[in-house]
């Protein structure tokens, strides 16, 4: 009886430690790390890569799914952080990502219109410039 009780407590302790350590993990399945500048550039790079892939590519579907996940993770991670949410780079990035997410919600994996791609590129260049200047 003592051995069974002891083993049960040890197993419970091990499970608590494992679950606790898994919750402390900084990275997510979307690949975002928690470093605002690095995460912003990662999302921009993936969106630009999706522009360049052919529409019938199987990789494009996977990349768009990753982008959708990154957009959600990015917004939920940085929107509540008042230091970051006030940056011009964040507000411009949020505007671009809202336009992209809205398009994907309405039209799925259809190719982005040229006008939307140009608009996103302009906004991404503004974000990169703001990140370079540190604002």
Describe what this molecule looks like in 3D.
- The chain has 135 residues and is mainly α.
- It has a single domain, classed as Methane Monooxygenase Hydroxylase, Chain G, domain 1.
- The chain is built from six helices and no strands.
- α2 packs antiparallel against α6 and α3 (58-78) crosses α5.
- 18% of the residues are buried.
- The model has no long low-confidence stretch (mean pLDDT 85).
Main features:
135 residues, mainly alpha, 77% helix
Question: What's this, in brief?
Answer:
This protein has 135 residues and is an all-alpha fold. It is built from 6 helices and no strands.
Note the gap between the termini: 64 Å
The geometry reads as elongated
- Would you count the extended β strands for me? 0
- Poorly predicted regions are none
Q: In percent terms, what proportion of residues is strand?
A: under 5%
Q: What's the CATH H-level homologous superfamily?
A: Photosystem II Pbs27
Structural class: mainly alpha
Largest sheet: none
Number of helices: 6
Mean pLDDT: 85
Alpha-carbon Rg, integer? 20 Å
Order of helices and strands: HHHHHH
CATH topology: Methane Monooxygenase Hydroxylase, Chain G, domain 1
CATH architectural label: Up-down Bundle
Oligomeric state of the chains present here: single chain
Highest-level CATH class: Mainly Alpha
Return the domain count: 1
Q: What proportion of the residues is helical, as a percent range?
A: over 70%
